[in-house]
Amino acid sequence: MATLAPPVPDAGRSPSPAAPATRRRHRGGSKAGKPGPVTYTLLTLVALVSIFPLYWTLVAGSHTNAEIAATPPPFLPNASLFDNFQAALEQAPIGKAILNSVLVAGSITVGTVLFCTLAGFAFAKLQFRGKGVLLGLVIGTMMVPTQLAVIPLFMMIAELQWVNQLQAVILPTLVSAFGVFFMRQYLISALPNELLEAGRVDGASTFRIFWSIVVPVARPAMAVLAMLTFLTAWNEFFWPLIALTTANPTVQVALAGLGSGYVPQRSVIMAGTLLGTLPVLIVFTILGKQIVGGIMQGAVKG
Amino acid sequence: MATVSFQQASRIYPKAERPAVDALDLEIADGEFLVLVGPSGCGKSTSLRMLAGLEEVDTGSIVIGDRDVTDSPPKERDIAMVFQNYALYPHMTVEENMGFALKLAGISKDERATRVREAAKILDLEPYLARRPKALSGGQRQRVAMGRAIVRNPQVFLMDEPLSNLDAKLRVQTRTQIAALQRRLGTTTVYVTHDQVEAMTMGDRVAVLKDGVLQQCDTPGELYDRPANVFVAGFIGSPAMNLVTGDAVDGGVQVGNAVLPVPREQLTRAAASNGKVTVGFRPEAVRLAGPGEGLPVRVDVVEQLGSDAFLYTSLADAPDDVLHSADLVVRTEPRSAVTTGQQLWLSTDRGAVHVFDAQTQQRVD
Ligand SMILES: Nc1ncnc2c1ncn2[C@@H]1O[C@H](COP(=O)(O)OP(=O)(O)OP(=O)(O)O)[C@@H](O)[C@H]1O
Ligand SMILES: [Mg+2]
């Protein structure tokens, strides 16, 4: 169950990442809030722990099954990586799967960010009848477990003859209740009413105000939502496994078919996983900068 | 350019017991600079927002030029507004901020650039056209907000406390600049402030509001010299007018053991409701009298301002219920020899006494 996240500006200013630095300062260790060696050691440790699984995937993906099982296990990647890549690509249509996943996760991200920002703006700043009830309904849908919807959803998809087609996994997730609520919370605090009124006096229609004023202000939150949505969509397994077949899979569905045999070929699975993870890493590297930038901007403007 | 008129316009916020603006009647002439002034919460902003179309008009109507705009959205009213916090678009440069309305109006890029540049020149903003609002000082932001209004060349300027975020010195300077700019452009302007000095110095006419009700709308001079009721008398002027309420007696109003002289005819009419009369006189209309003449007072505080001095005094022998406000303020020569605790006698200039019916609070002439 998704918990209700606090609005982003608060999250951005929350003191947790800076806490070690603050504590040091109180002990009088270093000058004027500059992080000391303790901070760096802690950060390095956390970074190493977080990056290790990815590194292990690389190491395991570049050895044979037997080599991984040896004691001590190998600690450096080696050149068999490309053989394992090849094996993975032969065993499952990973190329097609990546393309499908990019399409699916991309469409879901664009749709979710667009619709959630629109709805979040409406709930945050527009006055209309039944607003409270509608918002309650939206939040209410977050409490319905996805598993409950699977059977009716599958029946609808079957009715539409969409089984094994990408729209079957795209359309049901084009908007999320969490995203609507998240954008609403952000816009309530980040978008002053005067800005909208200035827009109206300047002669802008509500739609124009949305594009020219709301979207630029909402950008940091939109980037966060985009990243979360993309990751969720990329990693989604349950519904795509039901709606698609291994002939036209997303990455997760394709990976499920990898290395299956009497003895699972772990090195091939790892190599395939690495291939399937790369696009996400790329997206994160691009958006990550935006997000940090957005949060910093909001905090400095204060 | 256009006239503006409020006709019995009222605004009742949902769930409020009384109107925030109550049957406002106001005629603003073409090219006039009208200031709306009053204490906090009196409905100044609400009135302005009703005129802008940002607030509904529950009863009555609003006319700009010869067009009834009561139900028109803001964009059809041809007005420009300067907000208290400026409300500049944070992601647009100064140039884009100023040109946004023109862009929406479908004006060509070249003309937009020309008009923005013209306005920027008037407001000394040329070096900052490419900057974002974040990178400007408070005074510069204020000027951008002004610029955004003037490039549009609208029928009416609306300004809601545009100077309240500036420091005192800049406020005085900008005050004169805005007034001069308005005279030069000749655009009808409605200006909201809670600062009566701003109101008096900038407005052609000043409308004083209290609790959503218009008290008086007149030129600054008239407002000062002939306040229509006790509220306006006490609100306009700094330090405020001295207001004393007492029983009407033969020849004047009983204040403590002394009698403030009031012309007989005025006194009779002012005392008609309940026999009590409120008398007002400004600090500068008070003279020091010889011992034993006029009102006996004790000096509590002496305030030296350099150009003049103010004595804050209280009645020497007054029972507590006599005074409207505890103090009587007197303006004297600077560096006078008066000291704290000293006993003085005050008399008022003939003809400088304002008389009000204590019951209705209305002026009696
Ligand atoms: N959106 C609103 N909903 C309900 N009541 C409101 C709303 N806006 C203002 N009011 C009330 O209406 C009255 C007038 O408010 P308004 O903002 O016009 O005052 P003002 O004269 O501009 O005061 P200030 O000098 O403090 O800005 C106040 O009593 C206020 O509480
Ligand atoms: Mg106000």
Q: Concise description?
A:
The complex is a heterodimer of chains A (302) and B (365). Chain A is mainly α and 302 residues long. Chain A has 15 helices and no strands.
Structure description:
The complex is a heterodimer of chains A (302) and B (365). Chain A is mainly α and 302 residues long. Chain A has 15 helices and no strands. Chain A has helices spanning 8-13, 19-26, 37-61, 65-69, 81-91, 94-125, 131-141, 146-159, 167-170, 177-190, 193-201, 206-235, 238-243, 251-256, 266-301. In chain A, helix 5 (81-91) packs across helix 15 and helix 6 crosses helix 10. The radius of gyration of chain A is 23 Å and the shape is globular. Chain A starts with 7 loop residues before the first helix and ends with a helix. Chain B has 365 residues and is α+β, with helices and mostly antiparallel strands. Chain B has nine helices and 21 strands. In chain B, the strands form four sheets. In chain B, strands 6-7-8-3-9-10 form a six-stranded mixed sheet, with helices on both faces. In chain B, helix 2 (94-104) packs across helix 3 and helix 2 (94-104) runs parallel beside helix 4 (138-150). The mean pLDDT of chain B is 91. Classes of the chains: A mainly alpha (302), B alpha+beta (365). Chain A binds chain B through residues 192, 194-195, 197-205, 208, 212-213, 216-217, 301, and chain B through 52-54, 73-75, 79-81, 83-85, 87-91, 100-101, 104-105, 134, 148, 152. Adenosine-5'-triphosphate binds at residues 13, 16, 20, 38, 40-46, 194 of chain B.
N-to-C series of helices and strands of chain A: HHHHHHHHHHHHHHH
Beta fraction of the residues of chain B?
Answer: 25-35%
What is the overall silhouette of chain B? elongated
Q: How large is the share of residues in beta strands of chain A?
A: under 5%
What ligand species are in this complex? Answer: adenosine-5'-triphosphate, magnesium ion
Rg over C-alpha atoms of chain B, rounded to the nearest angstrom: 24 Å
Number of strands of chain A: 0
Protein structure class of chain B? alpha+beta
Secondary structural class of chain A: mainly alpha
Which percent bin holds the helix content of chain B?
10-25%
Major beta sheet, strand line-up of chain B: 6-7-8-3-9-10
The name of the CATH architecture of chain A is: Orthogonal Bundle
